[in-house]
Amino acid sequence: MTRTDALILAVLSLAVMLSAVAVVYAKYLTRSHFGQLQELRAQRDAIDVEWNRLRLEEAALSTHARVERKARHELGMFAPRLGDVLLIEEGGHGKKP
């Protein structure tokens, strides 16, 4: 084996070793990122569940019957009587005849 052949063999061996280390490192990064992805998906799912629960709660708290009951009991509000209603007609303000 000549000196040139030995040098080529050494360079190729080094290249094979470096590529093997690169493959192992890439596999490590892939697994690491996959674990992070799974954690983020779990967080997303938990947030979706919480969002749906909050939407249901908002719908329950904003029903017309509940709002009216709160207005009557807590704020002392009531529907206006017929005599309390005053109808104001628009009198052509800003319109051309």
Automatic annotation (TrEMBL):
One of its GO terms (cellular component) is cell division site. The keyword Transmembrane helix applies. It is found in: Cell inner membrane; Cell membrane. It is a single-pass type II membrane protein. InterPro entries: Cell_div_FtsL. GO terms for biological process: FtsZ-dependent cytokinesis. Keywords: Cell cycle, Cell division, Cell inner membrane, Cell membrane, Membrane, Transmembrane, Transmembrane helix. Part of a complex composed of FtsB, FtsL and FtsQ. Essential cell division protein. May link together the upstream cell division proteins, which are predominantly cytoplasmic, with the downstream cell division proteins, which are predominantly periplasmic. HAMAP family: FtsL. Belongs to the FtsL family. This is Cell division protein FtsL. It comes from Thiobaca trueperi.
